[in-house]
């Protein structure tokens, strides 16, 4: 293949894949062809650590055979191997039990597809040189080592990675869609030496769909170093019920548990603590979230979802009230609910009340959580228990670092205690979580 | 040229000549070492939901990765296309980590034979059709639904993997290993009045269809029901520091997080592990012995050979309470001037190997389980776990307890559930003050994540007491 990212060839491959699957006995088919190029350079303590570069490819299928269903994929695209693979897949599907709920999406839901340029692909991507990538990773380390107190730094690892992916999807009931995108990431991880023998680490990362829109590389190194050094001397705090301010960067962990309970699959399987709660107040008015698929340059932006349904913005939580679930075609039929979309695109939060510093001042006494460690959440009951580290807040200011602590509660109570959200959505994730301030959270420590 | 000696990958056109030309290209800029990793894996999943096995998922992975090492530095390229031009292109990419005159490649390659057989398969997945597996899923569903009147929903997920890896390196070695795997997950949703609870059980191993003995399937049903039903009786776990007793078996997650990751040599050669500089020093009581073992027959974490072609043995991490050795891959072994320990593992051909765990467990100790529980006035007994995590440098680690018990006055009093426990690795090991004689290696489907790569692992533990850790509950301390 001359140009590995050529869309015409991918489209032809996906259309041919649908035809082949039909010839093998599938009545309906969804097929996707993809290629992805990924380059990564990492650098540690003054020299290159690793360079990795590859273009990868594959084909995926959803097969509907005699009322039965399977989903299969392969990276072995040799024609005779693909022919045999699909023949075997169709034969396997015939052995399953029929499933009347399993169909391709209603073709009416493929339209109207928004006519917007989401700006997901940087046309200058190919111009990025290996030499430039190496300059960036070295510059990030230099910045990390230039911060105040850098003498305590043990090791700095930095990286630059970029990828270019392209896909083409064809359904036998009329859907066609092509997707292309690029992303660029700069990251740094810094370890420092604590006099007591511990070696606390922290990281920083920035990313963008467009190379030219990446923030200053040196800032990544500085932030990672300052964060690692700020962990020196961290102690376990006392067990207490306190206000919890969750930094925007790590708030996605908490929010993802809430969103897991919104999926059609968890509802239909009765493993969701939000089952039967549509229209009810799940949280305080500060819980206000929209799903926004058409954000220009967004990490979760899309014109259609993984099933081909045309994407459109909608409200998920409106001033604390649960406004919508995430329902796909299959579980929509089982639940007798209209499909929305299978999962979140970009999230957009309601207006916030200030940045982290302002929230710290407002809370007075409490704990700022800057990282969760392990833990889990029970999707059926909403109980959660998570390791946490961060800083004690005293008198409206950040005080000593704390670690080896735990926070626990239940989501059905926690979100009612959401006292405020920040105006600082974290820009390097599709969830775009702001700082979240909760009252009355159980911390476990000493 | 005939592919003399290459067995599995012969069908994909992989020959010694193809390997020789790839390695020669990989060394063209003076790398110290190069290897080529071919992988073929066919994964079949069947799932039962709402009473019927109505979905299947099949994935075929075929690909190759080429690595060049210069000192501690790595160059890597991979491809799904196994043709000579594609391999040479990967080799040229990987070669850019070095920048000097070419290094001579071996003129002859030797296919190694006589690997250990740690996963002998009687019923090969290639020969087991769906019609053999379907009744197994349906049977579990019926048994689970009828086992408890509160049972409302059952889901069963069955996976088998067949395939092989081939590793060839610039020392002229070629090794092939067929690596089967199977997993069975069952989850249950039960209702009692307005209360709902979900629980389950899973088993995994490197084996064929013979893995599913009547005994094992009975245990799956029994454990899944028991672990779900007990949740209705659970009270909130307390919050704060207290003694923690870990049940024999999957509690090995303690070792995986508290010491395992920190003993992976890459973190130590970089100086970022809390265990850097601690080799030869006492870190635990003299009756504490911890190993990472690739040799347990049929275990999910067993390997005949690691993903760099090195023999996988039993690595003694802690001997008599003293830190004995790290877990090495080829890069760290050279860095430290020691023999590789067979811990160089990777998720797939898309990744360079890293030092990784296999089956990590503690050897039996001098105490008895009953004596350990009786010794605790107030604490927690942890039976089942879902996940854990660690900060390698700071040493803080967690594990999430799905099922456990309160210990009151030396007795298991009331069940607790859904509580995270947090500690600091070296301090928690120092506080391991009782170790029982009842070592059990868990049969569950554990997967370890590191640097974006997942590999299958096992873990085990005898009953152990840790004199104090922080329990992240909500109840009274």
TrEMBL record, chain B:
Keyword match Acetylation: no
Any Pfam family: PmbA_TldD_3rd
Protein name: Peptidase U62
Limits of the Metalloprotease TldD/E central domain: 126-230
Alphabetical keyword list: Hydrolase, Metalloprotease, Protease
Domain of life from the UniProt record: Bacteria
UniProt domain Metalloprotease TldD/E N-terminal: residue ranges: 34-98
Source species of the chain: Anaeromyxobacter paludicola
Homology family: Belongs to the peptidase U62 family.
Residue stretches in coiled coil: none
SUPFAM superfamilies referenced in this protein's UniProt entry, alphabetically: Putative modulator of DNA gyrase, PmbA/TldD
Higher taxonomy: Bacteria, Pseudomonadati, Myxococcota, Myxococcia, Myxococcales
